[in-house]
Design brief:
This protein has no helices and ten strands. It is mostly beta strands. It has a four-stranded antiparallel beta sheet with strand order 1-2-3-4, with no helix packed on it. The protein has a four-stranded antiparallel beta sheet with strand order 5-6-7-8, with no helix packed on it. It has a two-stranded antiparallel sheet with strand order 9-10. A hairpin with a 2-residue loop joins strand 6 and strand 7. It starts with 14 loop residues before the first strand and ends in a 13-residue tail after the last strand.
């Protein structure tokens, strides 16, 4: 902030960073273009931040919401990255283990169209994940006799 030389931390299209609470590891996302359009997402981890990275998980483009900025958020203990994924028209909260890459579903909103907007947040003690949730509903209506 006070100046100094610029330093390139990553040169591999890294985006959406999350820093481990101890500052030792950089978690980030790489977009991989796919033939059908959009981009699959790879979760990666690098220790140190400019060192070689390891793949945690790959998420198909169809599981991400086009209206949402996909931003994983690290837990206070550094063990999980939380985010929203789509299952058809339903958004659910998921977490990925920062050590094993294991995906864990945190919510199950059932069958109704549910949307999670923006990004998620962790409580200070790491016991809860917060997200703005909306439910979609629509009716189809026939308007008859509108002509004079």
């Amino acid at each position: 902030v006070d100046g100094g030389a610029s330093v390139i931390v990553r040169a591999d299209n890294a985006s959406r960073p999350a820093i481990a609470p101890d500052g030792a590891t950089l978690y980030y996302v790489i977009e991989l273009p796919v033939v059908t359009g959009g981009s699959d997402l790879e979760f990666r981890a690098a220790t140190p931040e400019d060192g070689p990275s390891r793949l945690l998980a790959r998420i198909p483009v169809g599981r991400t919401a086009p209206w949402q900025v996909f931003q994983p958020v690290i837990s206070p203990d550094g063990r999980w990255l939380a985010f929203a994924l789509l299952d058809g028209t339903i958004s659910n909260l998921w977490a990925i283990s920062t050590s094993t890459g294991q995906l864990r579903q945190l919510t199950d909103f059932g069958r109704g169209p549910t949307f999670i907007v923006r990004r998620v947040s962790w409580s200070g003690d790491g016991r809860f994940v917060f997200a703005a949730v909306g439910q979609g509903d629509s009716d189809v209506v026939l308007l008859d006799g509108l002509r004079p």
